[in-house]
């Protein structure tokens, strides 16, 4: 009997696989690193063959550790970062790198090489942008494709397929070039609520009028929770599975995390809940059956995750990555290992007890070190730190770390305020990702936002959400809402003490004032 699910998550630095049972229990989990090169500023590239090899390694290891047979796996699901993969007509790798190396055929999600192209699309005010928050980010695929055609025309000419990374993985697994509705609506400006979904005049505006034929892009999509086909014989052998295993339509990693975090509310009032998927960057995702605007928020995207629902996302481009950067750049810092983060957190807690909550009040941070995704939608934005001294001690690092953490939580509040301003009613924040292991951030999310905080009782909500799509695609549960209800593990509730509300309200006023002052400086 096919009762188990395999979920694969490809992040920025590694591939992970988990084996789940029908009730959402994680039986085994494996991780393997992937390669990323950064040949110049704002450029970041993967090798998709290396990624597929890592996927095969982790799936085989997780299945072996779970001690289950291939014939017991109903389906496999894939989620990944919204990175752009280019392959030739026969599936060969095509370079996206200015170095010319063929193996680097994937532009990483965080790559900002296409800022000029994103700006061009944003100022066009094309109606497509009404379903992208009114602006285009360089992290989306259309500006990256424009950059590729302009700067590497020989690669464009060699292309036969353009894939979002999750769709590349389902293609490798099944041999089917079908694309997920999740990826195309959110990252390719495909309007799933319209027929046709592709806007030809928008493609012509972007100068990629030949995109659909050049990239093997279809006129229709496959909904999350549906199957694109079964494992091909070659993929089954490489993954250690069999050809009776269904392949679920791919998911963007943050949206898989939202599905895993919100699974318990999918059959009720999901619209009052926001999933905060917080790791290297942070995404705040909400689902609603009602079409509502969201200028400066990504979306609304029709059925990007859940049937009959629009998805809207607010984002912070660098959160965990920003804390790493602060640790790395400070004279008293170093390699931002888990142990060093823990040491800093413990010292911060000690300083707060000994010196009081105002121990670092002279420091103020705007966290836009990699642009502002939401609610300003400004990839050109830069970070600001006010209140630095000549102190290079470890304690000065701890003070800066604390105030950077405060700024990250203030940024989340800024996004939530924008959502509420557009009519999204939010009372509960479901937090998942690496930030749940940082007690400072978890305390701040509750105290700064004032929202009820739920931490799902799973070690990996992203893998769980992907397992939910596999359960639906493999017929283990009837649809995503049913899979969410059956597989959601419950969660721990955290609420603000309210003791520091006035302090954080003041910090928020200063935070907004810093935005105004930065704008004033840039206009002089």
Give your account of this protein's structure:
The chain is α+β, with helices and mostly antiparallel strands and about 525 residues long. About 40% of the residues lie in helices and about 20% in strands. The protein has helices at about 50-65, 115-125, 140-150, 155-160, 165-175, 180-185, 200-205, 210-215, 235-240, 255-260, 320-330, 340-355, 395-420, 440-450, 460-475, 480-485, 500-524, and strands at about 5-10, 15-20, 25-35, 35, 45, 75-80, 85, 105, 160-165, 225-230, 245-250, 250, 275-280, 280-290, 300, 310-315, 365, 385, 430, 450-455, 490-495. Strands 1, 2, 3, 6, 10, 11 and 12 form a seven-stranded mixed β-sheet that branches. The longest helix has 28 residues, at about 395-420. The protein is globular and about 65 Å long. The relative contact order is 0.13.
Give the key terms.
524 residues; alpha+beta; Nucleotidyltransferase, domain 5; 7-stranded mixed β-sheet; 17 helices
CATH level-1 class of the domain at 4-253: Alpha Beta
Low-confidence stretches: none
- Overall pLDDT metric: 96
CATH fold field value of the domain at 4-253: Nucleotidyltransferase, domain 5
CATH superfamily of the domain at 4-253: ATPase, nucleotide binding domain
